[in-house]
Amino acid sequence: MKLLAVFLLVFSMVALASGDPVPDGGSPGDDQVDLLQRSNSCPAGWTQINSRCFQYVLKPMSWARAERNCLSMGANLGSVQDLNEYRQIQAMIATASYEVKTAWIGGTDAQELNIWLWSDGSRFTYTDWCSGEPSNYEGKQHCIQMNYSVERCWDDLNCADRLPSVCVKKP
Fold first, then answer.
1. 3-class DSSP state of 24
2. For the chain, which terminus, N or C, has the lower number of CB atoms within 10 Å?
3. Whole-model pTM?
């Protein structure tokens, strides 16, 4: 029995001596907070805007190919929830391309005319349509491009046209 007590005492001392010290001014819970913060950050190449991760894809593609490209990265074409988020997405594009370029976002009414949906399934409540849009010109415009005209607003466009795109995903 004495041998077991000595073994447990030595084992306990070794375990305590090999533990990581708490950094000065910190508490044991600080590491947990850091882990939670890191889990909310976006992967390399993605920009965090609000609680989501965005990526600007410069390569021009049709809307469907752009959506498929986003899906391959665990994302969808971007949805826009409010004006502040829209301005931040525009700034991300300007930083990546050195200009404010038109780009696909995930809005489409291809399923039913004038029933606009986001490809990521989020609610379609915020809009920034240009004057006179959506127009569905020649009955062939069912996808949304952003940064259209000098007003940098939304325009419906033929989904087969090729544009850069914006993808979005959760961290």
1. coil
2. N
3. 0.76
